[in-house]
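Protein in question kept underneath.
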Amino acid sequence: MKLLGIGSRIKHTEFGLGVVTNVTSKHYWVTFIENGLETINLDSEFEIIESVEDEVDTVSFFEVESTLRNMLKQWSDISEIIPIADKWKGGNLILEPKDTSLSSKEIPIDAFFHKIVMVRDRIRVMEQKINSSKLDDQDKVDLQQYITRIYGSLTTFNVLFKIKEQHFIGSKSS
């Protein structure tokens, strides 16, 4: 199947006359005279009125942006926004000493959660720096095991995370 280039004109049975304005790996973005912008599958049925045979890069701007965002997240200390579970929003963490003559400490859970997320982000950066360092493989494995144990120690705080995929994961015991 030959891809149409940007600027190609087509006639679609449902949407009418249109011009291809973008091409991704799966879709044409077509601006139709009467229906505006629509995305249609590359293998959709339509009549080609005029084919423009440009070099077509089958990766969309969205796909490039998503890939770049994932790379930056993986290889930099830029952190994503991590939402706290709804039930904890606006709550407080109260630390009460056993000795009742001492005062308790009240901390907004949102601030505490933010610090937990910052710790996790910094551990991830440290992990990436270790993996890309010139240490020998055995030293990397040893340090990675410590990091895994640190994550395991932090699993207590998973209750604060809204999204399960963002939980801390330590080593699994069998």
Observations:
- The radius of gyration is 26 Å.
